[in-house]
Each structure stands twice: as structure tokens, then as C-alpha cells.
Amino acid sequence: MLEIKGLRSGYARGADILKGIDLNVTAGERVAIMGRNGMGKTLLAKTIMGLVKPSAGDIRLEGAPIGAMPAHKISNLGVAYVPQGREIFGDFTILENLRMGVIGKPKLGLEGLEKIYDWFPILRERQSQRAGTMSGGQMQQLAIARALIGRPKLLLLDEPSEGIQPNIVHEIAEKLSAISATEGLTVIVIEQNFEMVEILAERVAFLENGLITGESPTSRLVAEPELITQNMGL
Amino acid sequence: MTLFGLALDAMNYTSVLLLVCIGLVVIFGLMQVINLAHGEFFLLGAYTVLVAQGVGIPFWLAVPMAFVAVAIVGLLCDAVILRFIYDRPVDTILATWGLSLAIRQAIVIVFGAQSQQVAAPLTTPVELFGVSYSSYRLVVMLIAVLVALAVFLVLYRTSIGLAARAAMANRQMAQCLGINMRRLDRSTFSVGAGLAGLSGAVMAPLMSVDPQMGMGFVLPAFLSILVGGVGSPVGAIWGSVVIGGSTTLVSAWWTPVIAQIVVFLLAIVTIRFLPSGLSGLRKR
Q1: Is A21 inside a domain boundary?
Q2: Where is the ABC transporter domain (chain A) (predicted)?
Q3: pLDDT by residue (tens digit) across A167-209?
Q4: Which residues of B touch A70 (CB under 8 A)?
Q5: Residue B282 pLDDT > 70
Q6: Mutation site for A-interface testing, chosen from B155, B156, B177, B184 by largest number of A Cβ within 10 Å
Q7: A93: CATH
Q8: Domain span holding position A155
Q9: What is the 3-state secondary structure (H, E, C) of chain A?
Q10: Separation between Cα atoms, residue B276 and residue B227, nearest integer Å
Q11: Which helix (H) or strand (E) holds B212?
């Protein structure tokens, strides 16, 4: 599904933060990227999404190179992005936010809305409410729903548990895990919260100083939690 | 002049200001471009009507022609100059300022620096509650209201409008949701320029058509946007009402010079206490 080879990228020219990322994610797989702050996790997500252009290396989605593509084209190829901080449109209603999930995809309408409402019932109840008035957990559900309504092949989540109370984190992780299993959705989640990773991801890749320094099945990290601190350089 | 006549004048100035503002505010809101050539797009609209009348095209046909012609000019300016510098705000200010000088000088070269007149299509005054008022000014108000309504309907009732508002709120996220920003930028700049051209066209019979005529509108339009709230289409309405209304009323009671001082003070006070302009009041 997604192949990344020798990826180098940075926010400024000549100052690469990612220094040769190699990562393969197969279709339907759920992979977590863990690492300390400032290691380049968000930059990796932005580079895959086309918001930051790679300075070297290759990114392929289902065999097609996407490294030089603008974000809207990558979105139309089936990559959905839930950024850190959610970035929902606070002045729009919940329904308008959901419409935004299909607005750039001419072949899609709101036919998937009922399914979205079944997954996230709170959004059905509050569809006419201004999104900016919702709680953090509800906003996160909306951001995920907005990404899912566009029927992506690959869902890219950046710190989805940030600022959300633990029971909601569990609920979101379990829901995403179930959606991925039933819909065959590939998920890459960038996360520091192992509680979410444990439920959602099957495999964890550790990002340290701009490189993938280790990978492990999540089950092994559950059994040997000291591996997390070792791999994250803590 | 009676109070009602004064109110009509204020409404007339406000409506034209709104027409100029809408183009500016949409361009700034979406592209973060402070278009200093907006006054010259207004100018081009007026000269389009002048030329059209000169070759015998009826005024009411010349007005939509002005919109299309200036929209095409906007499209060309975007393709040749602006698209390369959208992400450099200071450069866009310099580039649009340079563009404004170039357009104004081109007008001087082609048409000369002297004032010219466009014949008004309606000359008979109408009687309104005992006040005799220019029928053409009333039509201008109606056009401004209809155009503003059309712009707001597109912005708030269509998918294109939703995409445009999303891009105004968060450009990067809009891109991530599949919106082609390049296409949206191009259309926005072109429509914004076209709206300025349309304003110039409808105002041409009420003013002397000369190379400086755009300047008189672009400054109050910028002030209206600051007062209403930068990048807010609804704010443009409130800003135009405050600036247009106060300019007309103070000019009538004192002098146009005092009016300018009052309007500047009003703008400074508003921005001091409401940095997001009048539209910021809603969010409080």
C-alpha cells in the first residue's frame, strides 16, 4: 500500500529533519509511529500528505509515486489526514465539516453519511451545531469522521489522543480498529500515548533523529514494555 | 437636503463601497493578498463602459462586459504575476502596487489624463416620499444589493462557497481535503477583479472618468474591511455601512475633509478596541 524509501525532508531547504526514512505498510495494516517530541513524526505525516516536499527519496502509494504531488491530488488518490490539533472548521456546523470530507472528490456525495453517523452517533445528534462549540473528544471524532466520509484507503492520524480524556481515547481507538478491520482501511497513527497504540496498532515503528530505528509487533511491546523506553531513547 | 435624501445618499455610497469591498475581502480572505491594484480594476471597468459607449454598445450591455473584461485581466494578472508569489505577502503588495501603476499609466497613454464622461442611462429623477432622487442612483443601489446577495448566496449556499470559506479558514486543511487551491485562487482573483470592474462600470456615469478615479474608492474600501473584520465577507457589509454612512453624513453636516478625519478616527478606534473588526463582536 505505502512504500517509503530513503525519504529525506525538512521545513527549510538544506535542513533535513527526516534523514532517510524506510517504511513499508501493507494494505489493511495498522501501524503506529512512536518517538519523542521533535524527532520528525509530524513532518513525516505532512510529507506523506504532500504538505512538505521531500528533498530526496521515494514515496509510493499502491506503486504510484506521490512524493512530488500536491496535497489535493494525494487526497484524491485515497489518503486522508487527521492532523495534530484536529483542525476542524470551528465556524462550520458539524454537517458542513462532514461535507468538507467529500467536497474535493467529485465522484463522492454524502451517501456514506448514515454509516458515519452509526459509527459516531454524537455527530448525528449535533449535526446542526457549530463544530467549535464541541468538546475535544467530540472534535476528534468529527475530524476522524470527516476523513472517513471520503472513503480513504489510507488514514493518517497525527497524535489523535492529544488533549482527550483516557476513556474517550479508548473508545476512539477501539472504534478505529473495528472500522479498519471491517472496511480494510490501512491506518498510520503517529502517537506518544501507548494506551491508544496498544488498542489500535498491530506494529510500531520508532522514529529517532529522523530515522526509523526499530520496529516491533505491538503484542511484544505489551509483553516487554521496557522496549518502548529503550526504542524511544528515554 | 432632507434627512431622507441624506439617508439615500449614504445608502448609495455604502452599496458601491460594498461592491468594491466584496472583491477585495474575498481575495484577501482566501489568498491573503492585499490587492493594491483593486482601484485600477475599478478604473478598467469604467473605461470599458466608456469605450463600449463610444462604439455604440448600450450601457446595460457594457456593464456585464466590463465585469467579464476585467475578470479576464484579473485572470491574466494571476497567471503572469501573482501565482508565483502567493506565499510571499510583502512581494504581493509590491507586485499589485506595481501593477496598479502600470495599469494607470497605460490608461493615461491610451486615453489621456483628462476627465471624460459616460452618459447616464437614466436621467429622470423619481419622487420618493417627497424627495426627488436620481433614478440611476437607485438602480446602482439595487445592482449592488443584488450582486452582494449573489456573492453571499454562492459563499453560503453552494459547495464552491463552502470550499472557499474552508480555504479562508484553513488553507492547508482545505488542500488536504482534496480542494485544488490553485484553481480556487485563480477563480477568486478573477471574480474579485471582475467585481471591481463592475463597480467601476456602474459608477462611471456618476463620476468623472479619469485615471485617478479608482483611488477615491480603494482607500475607503480598505478602511471598511479593517473596520468590518479582515477576511470576513459579512464584516465587509458592516464595514461598508460604518464607513459609507459616516462619510456621507459627516460630509453633509460639515465638510468632506472633516468627514475623512472622522472616518479615520473611527477606523482607528474600532481597530484599537476590536482587533478583529466588527465581525469579531459575534465571537465574543
Answers
A1: no
A2: 2-234
A3: 889 999 999 999 999 999 999 999 988 889 999 999 999 998 8
A4: 175, 180-182
A5: no
A6: B177
A7: 3.40.50.300
A8: 26-55+69-231
A9: CEEEEEEEECCECCECCEEEEEEEECCCCEEEEECCCCCCHHHHHHHHHCCCCCCEEEEEECCEECCCCCHHHHHHCCEEEECCCCCCCCCCEHHHHHHHHHHCCCCCCCCCHHHHHHHCHHHHHCCCCEHHHCCHHHHHHHHHHHHHCCCCCEEEEECCCCCCCHHHHHHHHHHHHHHHHHHCCEEEEECCCHHHHHHHCCEEEEEECCEEEEEEEHHHHHHCCHHHHHHCCC
A10: 8
A11: none
Residue A191 lies in a domain: yes
Q: Which residue of A lies nearest to B180 if distances are taken between CA atoms?
A: A72
Copy the grid coordinates of residue A44: 513525516
Residue B159 touches chain A, beta carbons under 8 Å: yes
Minimal C-alpha gap between B24 and chain A (Å): 21
Which of A51, A99, A104 lies nearest to residue B179, judging by beta carbons?
A104
pTM: 0.84
Q: Which residues of B touch A90 (CB under 8 A)?
A: 169
Nearest C-alpha of chain A: how many angstroms from B179? 5
Number of residues written out for chain B: 284
ipTM confidence score? 0.90
Indicate whether A20 belongs to any domain: no
Q: Which of B159, B166, B177 sits opposite A75 (nearest CB)?
A: B177
Where helices occur in B204-255 by DSSP H, the ranges are: 215-228, 233-253
**Residue A72 and residue B159: Cβ atoms within 8 Å?**
no
Q: Does A61 reside within a domain? A: no
Rounded to an integer, what distance in angstroms lies between the CA atom of residue A203 and that of residue A216? 6
